[in-house]
């Protein structure tokens, strides 16, 4: 049995799964916080987008490292 291919594809798949889970957790926490205290939406929303940007940057970094 001869297996050919690149293991970096598996690494990027894992990075994409991690990013997806991270974004899901961030938005779930945001929805819970806003539903409990709607008046804090303007305070929490910038933190939401900052966390989203960090998680997506890590997913893109995983993609770049998979190509190397």
From TrEMBL:
<keyword id="KW-0066">ATP synthesis</keyword>
<comment type="function">
    <text>F(1)F(0) ATP synthase produces ATP from ADP in the presence of a proton or sodium gradient. F-type ATPases consist of two structural domains, F(1) containing the extramembraneous catalytic core and F(0) containing the membrane proton channel, linked together by a central stalk and a peripheral stalk. During catalysis, ATP synthesis in the catalytic domain of F(1) is coupled via a rotary mechanism of the central stalk subunits to proton translocation.</text>
</comment>
<feature type="transmembrane region" description="Helical">
    <location>
        <begin position="43"/>
        <end position="67"/>
    </location>
</feature>
<comment type="similarity">
    <text>Belongs to the ATPase C chain family.</text>
</comment>
<comment type="function">
    <text>Key component of the F(0) channel; it plays a direct role in translocation across the membrane. A homomeric c-ring of between 10-14 subunits forms the central stalk rotor element with the F(1) delta and epsilon subunits.</text>
</comment>
<keyword id="KW-1133">Transmembrane helix</keyword>
<keyword id="KW-0812">Transmembrane</keyword>
<dbReference type="InterPro" id="IPR000454">
    <property type="entry name" value="ATP_synth_F0_csu"/>
</dbReference>
<feature type="transmembrane region" description="Helical">
    <location>
        <begin position="12"/>
        <end position="31"/>
    </location>
</feature>
<dbReference type="GO" id="GO:0046933">
    <property type="term" value="F:proton-transporting ATP synthase activity, rotational mechanism"/>
</dbReference>
<dbReference type="GO" id="GO:0045259">
    <property type="term" value="C:proton-transporting ATP synthase complex"/>
</dbReference>
<dbReference type="Pfam" id="PF00137">
    <property type="entry name" value="ATP-synt_C"/>
</dbReference>
<keyword id="KW-1003">Cell membrane</keyword>
<dbReference type="InterPro" id="IPR038662">
    <property type="entry name" value="ATP_synth_F0_csu_sf"/>
</dbReference>
<dbReference type="InterPro" id="IPR002379">
    <property type="entry name" value="ATPase_proteolipid_c-like_dom"/>
</dbReference>
<keyword id="KW-0375">Hydrogen ion transport</keyword>
<protein>
    <recommendedName>
        <fullName>ATP synthase subunit c</fullName>
    </recommendedName>
</protein>
<dbReference type="InterPro" id="IPR035921">
    <property type="entry name" value="F/V-ATP_Csub_sf"/>
</dbReference>
<feature type="domain" description="V-ATPase proteolipid subunit C-like">
    <location>
        <begin position="10"/>
        <end position="68"/>
    </location>
</feature>
<dbReference type="GO" id="GO:0005886">
    <property type="term" value="C:plasma membrane"/>
</dbReference>
<dbReference type="GO" id="GO:0008289">
    <property type="term" value="F:lipid binding"/>
</dbReference>
<keyword id="KW-0406">Ion transport</keyword>
<dbReference type="GO" id="GO:0033177">
    <property type="term" value="C:proton-transporting two-sector ATPase complex, proton-transporting domain"/>
</dbReference>
<dbReference type="InterPro" id="IPR020537">
    <property type="entry name" value="ATP_synth_F0_csu_DDCD_BS"/>
</dbReference>
<keyword id="KW-0138">CF(0)</keyword>
<feature type="site" description="Reversibly protonated during proton transport">
    <location>
        <position position="56"/>
    </location>
</feature>
<keyword id="KW-0446">Lipid-binding</keyword>
<keyword id="KW-0813">Transport</keyword>
<keyword id="KW-0472">Membrane</keyword>
């Amino acid at each position: 049995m001869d297996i050919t291919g690149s293991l970096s594809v598996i690494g990027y798949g894992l990075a994409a799964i991690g990013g997806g889970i991270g974004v899901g957790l961030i938005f779930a926490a945001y929805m819970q916080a806003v539903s409990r205290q709607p008046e804090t939406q303007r305070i929490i929303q910038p933190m939401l987008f900052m966390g989203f940007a960090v998680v997506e940057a890590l997913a893109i970094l995983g993609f770049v490292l998979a190509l190397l």
